[in-house]
Structures are given as structure tokens and as C-alpha cells.
Amino acid sequence: MNDEKNNNGIEAEDIEAIEENQDITDEKPKRSVVGRVFKIGFTAIVVLVWAAIISTIFLRSDDKILKTPILSERAREIYSSAKDDFEFYNVYPQIFMTKDGSVQLAETVYAAGAGELEIGVRIAWTQLRYCVECDRLYTPEQLEKQLEEDKKKQKEDENYSPAACLKVHAVERASLKQRQLYYTLTDSDGNIYPQAGRKSRTKNLNLLLLNIKYEYERVCFSGLYFRLDKNIINTAGESTPENGESEPADKGKGTEYYLNCYDKKGGSLLFSACVYSDGTFINPTTYQIPKSEYLN
Fold first, then answer.
1. Is 108 in contact with 120 (CB distance < 8 Å)?
2. What span, in angstroms and rounded, lies between the C-alpha atoms of 231 and 254?
3. Residue 220: which of 137, 123, 295, 292 has the closest Cα?
4. Residue 53: in which H helix or E strand, if any?
5. CA-CA distance, 3 to 41, in Å (whole number)?
6. CA 271 to CA 257: how far, in whole Å?
7. d(Cα 119, Cα 124) in Å, to the nearest integer?
8. Pick from 175, 192, 265, 283: most CB atoms within 10 A?
9. How far apart are the C-alpha atoms of 55 and 1, rounded to whole Å?
10. Entry pTM
11. Residue 281 sits in which domain range?
12. Structural domain contains residue 52
């Protein structure tokens, strides 16, 4: 016979067809597994991306403590003993943040009877930078000034070697380091005022390449008794006898009060702003003792 058959009577061509079909069948599970792994991986990436986006949005929303006046225990006792006579003001400094927004001031308040000035501070640690060789913090604005200074000196001296940290040192995000700030309140007469209280809260996210950290603080200082009768809101309507024009009786700013923000470990100044002078606008408002969650 021309057609060869095996012992079971199956032709050779049929055997070859069965083997080909078996190979195809074996490949399908392999393709299915690869497709399933790819699908799971893609889904995981999408979930991580959305989780990062949602977390970033959440982190960028300020903690309520930033705009919650707290004051010291002593000031709260004064308020409780005479609520109707407790003078309390919102204060609006003209400069309230670094140009890059890494340090921002918010909800500055003054308790006249208690002699306390309290300031909210928002620190974007993700924007601050840490120089490994200098072991100190910088704002992006400070690093940019270093680059500008390099360019200026290079124009004056072509042999000048760059000294800016961004050029010659390793610079990292400060959110990767466990650093802290400390604050002082000084005035233009050389006085330093004691800190009466400080409360902090932190929001952070560490996810793969993402490292986001924000800190929110209320910092209170005591021993401050401003001459509110000299403030611009009380002098702007007064007239001078010479010409009868409406202008402030005291054209000067009087004593100026500065909040200074430092890198606690390195001691470098990150930000300084005048938070009060006679020319700073204030607005009378009411104080309420905050919830216990802000006091502990």
C-alpha cells in the first residue's frame, strides 16, 4: 500500500496534523499568561499614577492648623477672663513668602492685651534644597542668586572658577532629610522676643520616586506691645495743619518687627520678613479658643 499506517491504523499525515495542532494548543496558554501579566502590570502602573496624583492634591491642601490662631496658655486665660475686652487683630505683612514659595506666612494675628504676635508658617520641604558638602539648607531663590553671582564674577574675571552649589556640589531635595527650622522675632531696635508657643503638623508622601513633604506651624511670640494708635489704620485720616490734606500723622514706619526663619542644624537664614510696623495694615477681629486637637 502507498499510504503508511501505524499500528492503530492512523495515517502519517494525520499524525503530523495532530502534532501541529498540539503545538498551537501549547502556545495559547503561554500567550495567555504573558497577556495576563502585562495587563496586571499596566493596571498596577495606572493605579500607582492615580494614587500619586490624588495624594499630591491632598498634600497640597493646607492643614487647618496653618490658619487656626492658638496663642499661649496665658493669653487664653486672659481671653477667658474678659472676652468682650480682648483686643485681637489680623495683621497683613507686605512680604509673606519667598519668591519660590518654599516658605510662606499665613494668618498673622496680634493679641494686644496679652502682647502676643502669632504667625502661621507653611514649609514646602519638597522645594527647599539640601547641599551635601555644605550640610545646610537653601531656598531655590538663594541657589539662583549664587548662579547669578557666578555669572557676574566670570564676566569680570575669565579665570574665575564657579562656586555655586548647583555647579560644584551635590544638591538634594530637603524632603529627603530630617531637618527642622527655628524662628526668632527681632525688631529694628535690636530687641529679641521670646517664643511663647509652637505647634506643628506634617504631611508627607514617599512613593517610588515621589517624596513630598509639607509642614505647617503656628509660632507665637510674647512681650510685644505695639503702639496701635500710630498704626496706619488709625492715622490715615488725620490732617496736617499746614495744608489740610489727609495723610498719616506719623509718616515713618516706627519700629519694625521681623520674623526670621533658620535652618536649625546649619544655622543659615532661609527667610526674613517684616511682620509688623506702623505701616502694616491690621484689622480688628474676634478670637476663639481652638479645639483641643490644636492645643495638644
1. yes
2. 9
3. 295
4. helix 12-60
5. 52
6. 14
7. 16
8. 175
9. 78
10. 0.77
11. 62-137+176-295
12. no
Beta-carbon neighbour count of residue 252 at 10 Å? 11
CB 284 within 8 A of CB 88: yes
Number of domains in the chain: 1
> Which DSSP category does 5 fall into?
B
- Cα–Cα distance, 8 to 97 (Å, whole number): 91
- Return per-residue pLDDT of the chain as tens, 296 residues: 444 445 555 555 555 555 555 554 555 555 677 777 777 877 777 766 666 666 566 556 889 999 999 999 999 999 999 999 999 999 999 999 999 999 999 999 999 999 999 999 999 999 999 999 999 999 999 999 999 999 999 999 988 999 999 999 999 999 989 899 999 999 999 999 999 999 999 998 876 667 789 999 999 999 999 999 999 988 865 544 443 343 444 456 799 999 999 999 989 999 999 999 999 999 999 999 999 999 98
- Residue 46 vs residues 41, 50, 170, 212: alpha-carbon distances, Å: 9, 6, 33, 20
In a domain, 221, yes or no: yes
As given in the structure block, the three cell numbers for residue 120 are 502661621
User: Is residue 202 in some structural domain?
Assistant: yes
Sign of CA dihedral 157, 158, 160, 162: positive
Measure the CA–CA gap between 193 and 257, rounded to whole angstroms: 10
